[in-house]
Amino acid sequence: MGDLPGNVWAKRCGVCCGTFVVIMSIIIFAVCMANYVHLGPNEQVLLKESTGKYVKNGPWSGQLNPFHGKTRRNAQLLDALQYAIVQDILTSVQRVEAGPQLFFPGAYDEIQSINTKIVLEKHQFVRLTDQMTGEETVSKGPGTVVPTVYQTHNGIEDAVFVNKGTSLVLVNKLTGLQELVTICNYPSGVWAPEPLQELVDIRELIHVLPHEAMVVRDVDGLMTVYSGRSSTTNADGCSVSSTSDGNGVGFFLPPYSKILRMQWSTYSNPSSTRRMDAITGMGTRQTEDDFGDFGGGGHHFIHRPSNSNNRRLSREAVHVYDEGLGQRRLDSIYVDQISTSISSAEKRNVTAIDLRTQKSFYEYEVRTRDNVRLLLSGTIFWQISDVASLMNMTSDPESDVWSRCRSILIGAVSTVTLDTFMSTFNDIVVTAFDASKSSSFWSDRGLVMISMELNDYSPVDETTATTLQSIIRQSVQRINDLQKQASDSDVEREKLEADILLERNMTVYYQQQAYNKRIEAETAGSTEGGRHAEIVGTFLESLASSVDNATERLELFKQEKRYNSTQLDTQQLTNGNASLFMSPKDMELRLQMQ
Which residues are registered as beta bridge partners of 180? Predict the structure, then answer.
């Protein structure tokens, strides 16, 4: 190459330099064109340089530094029901980007998730809790809700409808106080909670029939009586009385209050109990198969024991079942009254007090003045007139009635002998009972005694029973004999009365027969007399022309009749066996004395 002339060498060097320049120019152009960016409306480019990162969002066109790193990416389209959780990777701070929008992340933004907004209908709400601060918020429909990054929820809940038959018990989680929500203090009717408010229970309207009363006791021990016969007002200001139409009353159980459940003695019919024991071979028992729908707001119901031996078990709830949990839990709306009764009778739970006339059966052992033991059985009719006085004085009114009437009968029977008792037992019982009606014992307890009936009595001692049975047999025999004698006398009396009636009828018969014959004779005589009168009239008229004097014409008629009669008699004597007796008058004989 050293042998080449200088101009060739220079030429070659120029060609090489030109080629190098062209190649470099091509390379530089290619690099520049490679870093020229045209971004669409939904694109961005992330640029990285030594000092940090930055982004360019479209639409944009331009030349980028070829010595900087770059990443081309699409923006995130969020519709109206979406939101994105974005985190800054430098600060770890998260934020929410809600749609609808075309979201361009920042240089240090990272989309953690894309979620769907919470859509609430008009009767729905969602309770949101901030995990950082613990603050609670409630969002109500209709609308959409976008939770913050640290807000969580337990799902969408339905609002509760409040009406005349439903109430809500709410608790404030900040103060712990409960309140009752009804249609009276929440007229909108669709309840959704406020922050820190929680639903404790849904309570149905408790109905009290016109003949019933219920007692509610609050946390301070104060008792309120809801009676179907009186007017009252609930704690929320709602009137609970509806006695004008005879439907009783209804009330909502206030917070911190429970229905008082009492235990009353049951005095059933002893004869019925003995018959049932003889049939079943065991004592009476209660079976729990009667389910009611009292209280509970649709999520629990009350189980009631059945009415054994026709006993009134009025709303006597024992347990409440929670259908949501599917398990048995203790009743939460009742509180049991402490019973001070020492009665050994069978007990029954009473929540609704019956204000109608009640019936209790008794069987008492008493002694007469002559020391004869008797077993008396019967019925007591009584009624509750003042529930407040009843609650203040006794926990078992039926036991008090039974025990007091026992004392009354023991005292009354102890003053008379057996003979007197047997003859006037009903008067003895009624007199003793009437004398005790005005006692303050009954009025202090709000009770009204109606009547006491003695249905049966029997001696307790076997010897007395045998003697009494003998007396009874003799009395029965005497009564039977008297009845037989009375029956015979009745038969004789009936026979005599029948004979008298027959004779009276015969007298009437003969009198009527004589009357009929007399009428018949009079009728026949009238006919014959008319015929003779016509004959006389004709005879007299025929002689009127020859004999002027009517008397002489009449004498001539009489003489003719006598001749006719004499001729008839002569004819009968001629034709028969009759005898003729002549009298001077008939022969018209005259004696002439000279």
Answer: 169
- The tokens for 527 are 């006919």
Q: What angle do CA 228, 232, 235 make, to 5 degrees?
A: 125
Determine contact, residues 291/303, Cβ cutoff 8 Å.
Answer: yes
d(CA 384, CA 262): 15
Q: pTM for the whole thing?
A: 0.59
Q: Helix, strand, or coil here: 69?
A: strand
Residue 123 · residue 159 · CB < 8 Å: yes
| Pick from 157, 156, 153, 194: nearest CA to 174 | 194
From CA 120, how far away is CA 129, in angstroms rounded?
Answer: 17
Quote the tokens at residue 70. Answer: 């770059």
Per-residue pLDDT of the chain (594 residues; tens, 9 = 90+): 455 566 776 777 777 777 777 777 777 666 665 566 778 888 888 888 878 888 888 888 877 777 777 888 889 999 999 999 999 998 989 999 999 999 999 889 999 999 999 999 998 999 999 999 989 999 999 999 999 999 999 999 999 999 888 999 999 999 999 999 998 888 888 999 999 999 998 988 988 998 999 999 998 989 999 988 775 555 454 645 444 455 788 889 999 999 999 989 888 776 655 544 444 444 433 333 333 333 333 333 333 333 333 333 333 333 333 333 333 334 578 888 887 767 778 888 999 999 999 999 999 999 999 888 889 999 999 999 999 999 999 989 999 999 999 999 999 999 998 888 888 888 999 999 999 988 999 999 999 999 999 988 888 888 777 777 777 777 778 888 888 888 888 888 888 888 888 888 888 888 888 888 878 777 776 676 677 777 777 777 777 777 777 777 777 777 777 777 777 777 776 776 666 666 655 555 454 444
Q: How far apart are CA 226 and CA 234, in angstroms?
A: 9
Which two tokens mark 144?
């959409």
The Cα 270–Cα 460 span in angstroms is 16
| Cβ count near 558 (within 10 Å) | 10
Strands (E) in 423-492, as ranges, are: 447-459
Give the torsion sign (CA, 409, 412, 418, 420).
Answer: negative
CA atoms of 27 and 33, how far apart (whole Å): 10
| CA distance linking residue 174 with residue 50, whole number of Å | 54
What whole-number distance in Å separates Cα of residue 91 and Cα of residue 95? 11
The single-letter code of the amino acid at 244 is S
3-state secondary structure of 486: helix
Tally Cβ neighbours within 10 Å of residue 307: 14
Collapsing DSSP to helix, strand or coil, 213 comes out as strand
Radius of gyration of the chain measured on its C-alpha atoms: 63
Sign of CA dihedral 578, 579, 585, 589: positive
Residue 297, token pair as written in the block: 């707001």
Count of CB atoms within 10 A of residue 97's CB? 19
Question: Considering only CA atoms, which of 150, 152, 161 is closest in space to residue 126?
Answer: 152
Say if residues 364 and 409 touch (Cβ distance below 8 Å).
yes
Alpha-carbon distances of 352 from 217, 225, 241, 355, 358, rounded to whole Å: 14, 11, 16, 9, 14
The Cα–Cα gap between 69 and 577 comes to 193
